[in-house]
Amino acid sequence: xxxxxxxxxxxxxxxxxxxxxxxxxxxxxxxxxxxxxxxxxxxxxxxxxxxxxxxxxxxxxxxxxxxxxxxxxxxxxxxxxxxxxxxxxxxxxxxxxxxxxxxxxxxxxxxxxxxxxxxxxxxxxxxxxxxxxxxxxxxxxxxxxxxxxxxxxxxxxxxxxxxxxxxxxxxxxxxxxxxxxxxxxxxxxxxxxxxxxxxxxxxx
Length: 204
Hints:
Layout: H1 10-19, H2 26-38, H3 46-51, H4 65-87, H5 103-126, H6 136-161, H7 166-192
């Protein structure tokens, strides 16, 4: 798919999210878009996913047609960027710099990893559905991703109880990151790419 919109970059997009008081962190937005692009839910639209980023009672009020067009153009720039990551099967977990000697920083890192995966990719993939008509292997892979998300939360809890175990926990984080990315790659290769033309979505 040739991108019709240009992504404005992380810094500018974060300011855009801040302007509209979007409570969803940028990394979760990216992964939720990626999950939605991978979703076999044919009725899931980008506008649905964009709406999910805001509380129901705090949806942005777009005053003019021009503002609405720009609002969706910015979001679709990111959507097209994530579509390219899926199409080329280069989707990665967000790169997070963290002081590996700071227990509190690693604790927050683990919580963020959990949220990026559970509320980002997986929430986008299911798109509000409790069940989807997907092959057994895909169902098992999404279950595995959810279980891996919980690993990060368990690691965070371990850090709260035993900060002396930081070195071992860092190794587990690295291994878990690798498992998540391999699982995403396999899911995209075998479920998404064979049907990629059917998964192209536009704002409507």
